[in-house]
Write a structure and sequence with these properties.
The structure is a single chain. The chain has a five-stranded parallel sheet with strand order 4-5-6-2-7, with helices on both faces. It has a two-stranded parallel ribbon with strand order 1-3. The chain is an alpha/beta fold. It has three domains: about 160 residues, P-loop containing nucleotide triphosphate hydrolases (Rossmann fold, 3-Layer(aba) Sandwich), CATH 3.40.50; about 45 residues, no CATH class; about 120 residues, Up-down Bundle (Four Helix Bundle (Hemerythrin (Met), subunit A)), CATH 1.20.120. It has 16 helices and seven strands. Helix 7 packs across helix 8, helix 8 packs across helix 9 and helix 15 runs antiparallel to helix 16. Strand 5, helix 5 and strand 6 form a beta-alpha-beta unit.
Length: about 350
Amino acid sequence: MSVSFKKIYGNELSKSLFAENIENNKLPHAIILEGDRGSGRYSFALNIAAATLCTALEKPCDRCKNCRQIFEGVAPDVTTVSLPEDKSTISVDAVRFIKNGAQSVPVEGDLKFYIIRDADKMTVQAQNALLKILEEPPSFVVFILISENVNLLLSTIRSRCCTFRMQKLDDAELAEYISSTYPKAAGLQKSDESAFNRIIKTANGCIGSVLDNLDKRRFTKICDEYTVVKGILEALSKSDKSDFMRYEDELSAKREDLKESLFTIRSAFRDILAVKKGVSAELIFFDSVDDIKRISKNFTLSSIAFALDVIEQTLNSNEQNANVNLLKINLMNALWKCVH
């Protein structure tokens, strides 16, 4: 028997460790896959389950009954629990559902899997309920928690799990892989290289994010967001506060959209910080160093550092479900104070 995660690009160390554990029947009973959206966490989780339950010698084979059922989402021994579309948290009821199901033996294999997407969105009550299962897990159950920020999980949960961080690709690796694997991406690279590069830059090293961004509506949204953030920085570099504050209305009042905008603003300030410090680094937001120098001529290193702190604080407050409209107002006022 041999395990090879051929469908997972990158993450060589994690793939090697999981392959060895599966081959030796030593898969941990509780696993955390941490990484940004689009980094392949859920795909990796499904491949771990497939490699474990696959009936072929080369695992996962993608052809046996178990593999097909897992990737089609109908495997009786693999259950995915997700954040409800109309909710911002995963409730204790979802964990009770897991607890009840975890008591029954697998239907077809030796193990059964529970994959919890957005695990860091579980309420404290839900996490405490899950903790009780993790403390005395059934021998035939494996839990895989998918998280963007493992620090939002209780320390008692983290201590009972093996945590793996998904690897990011640099822009060159990402561009090469995407253009050589997906014809739509290759076509865009040939027809509009600037648009293709913008998609790569905003993907933050994640293949899944590039694929999402290739959608026309999603790409339009990215371009609009770039324009807004560029406008915020342009206005911040000047002395008209009223002109700057009008951009507060341009920021979305939807929590997830605001989060993406904050990531974009953070990327812009990181570019500015690198140039101010004279560090040679790949630009994430800006297209040119000259553009950065023009916009940030009145920014000091301390003001940039304060701005980055403000952004991190706003991201954390957003994760804690603070009022979005109030967050936007406070963000804009705080950024202005950082520079002026």
